[in-house]
Amino acid sequence: MSLSESKERMLAAAKALMLAQGYGGTTVDAICEKAGLTKGSFYHFFKSKEDLGLAVLEWSLTKGGKLLSEGPHAAIADPVARAFGFLDHVEACGAELWSEGCLLGTYASELASTNDRVQATVARMFREVGAYFSSELAPLVGAAPKGSLPDAEALGEQFLALLEGAIILGKAYRDPARIRVAVQGFRENMQRALALPV
Fold first, then answer.
1. Residue 122 and residue 108 in contact, taking contact as beta carbons nearer than 8 Å
2. pLDDT tier at 112 (50, 70, 90 boundaries)?
């Protein structure tokens, strides 16, 4: 097994455990056991559990961002149709991405008030995700009657808040379909704002 494969296994194991048990409830020993690797391997890749935790966030965000950005909507030329296609794609892959929860949300609720380094990283990543959503949804703002939608930045943040809430409800009820339903409702609101059939 290559070093990169070993590191990927460590990151995947850490993510699964931290989503299931929280950051505080996940030990380095448990991560090594789940990954099938030694503690020496852990310390080869990471200086500490905190370093691993931050690496898991970066790794997870990169993978999720790739999945979201490479959907069928990417080939749609019309900006408004592309924005709706993006919402369709989020709906289609929401359960795959977030059925076990959201690591950013987990860290925010568990660590943001006690760990400045994690808080700063989580806040930066939420800003990046919100900015990405804003860029994908901006054409809807431009096409809507003036005043019917907030500006693109606020719309992206609203979509982020809606998703995070749906992810939490999906986990609480053990029903990831709540993510799909939330995205559907958001899309219908956008269609109404643009006077399109729902």
1. yes
2. confident
Calculate the alpha carbon distances from 192 to 78, 121, 149, 195, 198 in Å: 19, 36, 10, 5, 7
All domains of the chain in start order, with CATH = 1-46 (1.10.10.60), 49-193 (1.10.357.10)
On the CB side of 74, how many CA atoms lie within 13 Å of its CA? 8
Mean pLDDT of the chain: 95
pLDDT at position 3, please?
A: 57
Residues 6+ apart with CB under 8 A from 86: 68, 71, 73, 136, 137
pTM tops 0.90: yes
Q: Which of 183, 181, 191, 185 is nearest to 160 (CA)?
A: 183
Give the pLDDT confidence score for residue 13 in this predicted structure: 97
